[in-house]
Amino acid sequence: MEPECDKLVMAAINKNYVDMDEYPVTTELQNRCVNMIAHLFNAPLGESETAVGVGTVGSSEAIMLAGLAFKRRWQNRRKAEGKPCDKPNIVTGANVQVCWEKFARYFEVELKEVKLSDGYYVMDPEKAVEMVDENTICVAAILGSTLNGEFEDVKRPKRPLGRKEQGDGMGHAYSRRRCQRRLHRPLPVPGARVGLPAPVGEEHQRQRTQVRPRVCRHRVGHLEEQGRLARRAHLSHQLPGG
Q: Per residue of the chain (242 residues), what is the pLDDT tens digit?
């Protein structure tokens, strides 16, 4: 590494990063990074609003935290409507990382997988939307599949999800400009292999600015990990930090 990096490591090596009470500045630095990333990804934040996020030790932890937030938010809404909330599910492609399967198993969530087909080795957005029902807490799309490195189309499920929610009474009239606030089934976007550089690449500038149902992204670099939720409203107050 560069000498400056070596000096930085040695100066901070005796700091306990997870002890936020003893070393509050580490938390402040983390929060600054979260907001930088949120603005880089054009998160729909108000002028005085800050993004919600946390540094994690790996992509698996980031997905677990996001999944728990989605599950609790869905449960709270179902309870408020007087409906059962004991059978949540998530919709993914069969090519997802194993941590999605672990999340489903550990936290009692049904995993509904879109099967792959010859010549098409990522999740088919249309088939994914067909699997969505009133118990779906999220639909997962991946940038950089660990199967073949391909990017799943994050934009294509947006309109079908809006139409489906309008049809089953889950959401209000579908609005392209405001679907971030209206859709109940969010689109988490895990960066399985290239989560950090992918959203700022030429091909995904459009997705970065236009895909509004996306409320969560975690980005992955070789030596760093950062999970992020777009807005505090997406994090239940019943979870730590909510």
A: 899 999 999 998 888 888 889 999 888 988 898 888 888 877 778 888 888 888 887 888 888 988 998 999 999 999 999 999 999 999 999 998 899 999 999 999 999 999 999 888 999 988 988 999 999 998 888 877 888 888 887 777 666 676 666 655 454 332 233 333 344 555 555 554 444 555 555 455 454 444 444 445 555 443 444 444 555 555 555 555 55
Beta-carbon contacts of 20 under 8 Å, excluding residues fewer than 6 positions away, are 26, 27
Strand duo 189-190 + 216-221: pairing? parallel
Say which CATH architecture domain 53-234 belongs to. 3-Layer(aba) Sandwich (3.40)
Q: Which residue ranges does the chain devote to CATH 3.40.640.10?
A: 53-234
> Comparing C-alpha atoms, which of 127, 131, 215 is closest to residue 179?
215
pTM, two decimal places = 0.70
